[in-house]
Amino acid sequence: MQQPVEVHVEEHESIVERVAAVDVAKASGMVCLRTPHEMIPGRRVTKIWPVAATTAALVELGDHLRCERVTRVVLESTSDYWRPFYYLLEAAGLTVWLVNAAQVKNVPGRPKTDKLDAVWLAKLAERSMLSPSLVPTEPMRQVRDLARARFDLVEDRTRVKQRIEKLLEDALIKISSVLTDVLGVSGRTMIEALIAGQRNPTVLAELARGRARRNRATLQRALHGRFTDHHARLTRLLLGQLDELSARIDEVTGLLDAAIRALPTPAADAQDNPAPAGYDSAVARLCAVPGGGPDSVRAVLGEIGLDMRVFGTSARLCSWARVAPRTVQSGRKTGRARTGKGNPYLKSAFAQIATGAAKTDTFLGERYRRLIKRMPKAKALVALQRSILVIFFHLLADPTAEFTDLGSDFYAKRIDRARRTTHLLRQLHALGYQVQLTETAAA
Questions:
Q1: Quick check: helix, strand or coil at residue 28?
Q2: Distance CA 51, CA 93 (A)
């Protein structure tokens, strides 16, 4: 039996003397204030009261907590209801922490009320058992709002395209089986002609442009349906909605680009950082990564910004983005837990980049092909997302860095030829073969 080793570690529990916590709800919040007792050393006084989630009430709450000399206010991130509490208390000059709800869950078996939740949150805060979540500055919050608005508009436009395709299927128009993009130049021209009253499949197929003209015979058969005036009216409405969404997307894209360019960049350092990263430079360098494009890079910058000092290291950024699996160890078993949900907008952008990079003949593509040999494809894509995020971090942290692909043969070049040869010879000998090696001139 292994003898236990006694280790003496001097620990000092960090106690925040004057702390407040708010259990946030939609229309109100439950405030818990814990301060030292004025007469009895070691005792603490707990005060609990409700507060309305209105501007006037929260401004008054901020003044009261400032008069109580509160050094830390802790909020639980409940939906978007924490925002007025955070913004107004921060404007009052208080140090406000927004904490993840997963860190402040009450002990199972205990009764749960708003008052008890507020007291529990305050006790965790005063013992420094919580870590604050990242809340961007006001300029970065505006960038995020625009980036997410653009993401939502693109999703809405995709839904409208799907409705148009569904309507064409109802009219027995099967051009989606022939054309890659139903609403491309050829498809849009044919749909407009259908709305205008043209029903002759031969005439409609002649409207094809570019490579689609090679499939005119197939298009004639696909355009033979029962497109009625009812379908024409509905299609016209959906096309108008599609054009309106496209115009709004272009408008938001321009606002987003301007907002990212207006972000404050890190101060230039004469030795280490002579040229702070600008938006145009960052986009150009990030687009050089396989799978990256202006739209996906714009979505990434809208979530993480240009200043990587906020995260400190690439490992912290990967953990925050939830692309790094947690390690779970119990006894002799060491496993890996799920990565977690993370930021859905950021994960969607990196999923798009990783899917594109996996199909390329590059280092990232070869890394994906090696990973899928020993894990599911979805898991390999998440691992590839982490690699891409690390690359993005270093490109943004160093404005002078340029992306250089290691090549699809990177792993092959790192193989120890002698060790590999010995391993293969042993396998052949185990199968009963006698092998004589002759080195070629190319080798």
A1: strand
A2: 19
Question: What pLDDT, in 10s, does the model give residues 182-199?
Answer: 898 988 999 999 998 888
One domain for residues 208 and 147? yes
Q: Which pair of structure tokens corresponds to residue 299?
A: 């979505």
In order, the DSSP letters of 358-385 are HTSSSHHHHHHHHHTTTS-HHHHHHHHH
Residues 97 and 52 in one domain: yes
Q: Is the residue at 424 inside a domain?
A: no
Nearest one of 395, 325, 399, 403 to 364, comparing CA atoms = 403
Query: pLDDT tens digits, residue range 360-369?
Result: 898 999 899 9
Rounded-to-integer distance, Cα 18 and Cα 197, Å? 75
Q: What DSSP string describes 297-339?
A: HHHHHHHH-S-GGGT-SHHHHHHHHT-SPPEEEETTEEEE---
Nearest-5° angle of CA 45, CA 49, CA 54? 140
In a domain, 53, yes or no: yes
Which domain range does residue 119 map to?
Answer: 19-126
Predicted pLDDT of residue 265: 65
Last residue of a domain, one of 259, 288, 304: 259
211 & 302 share domain = no
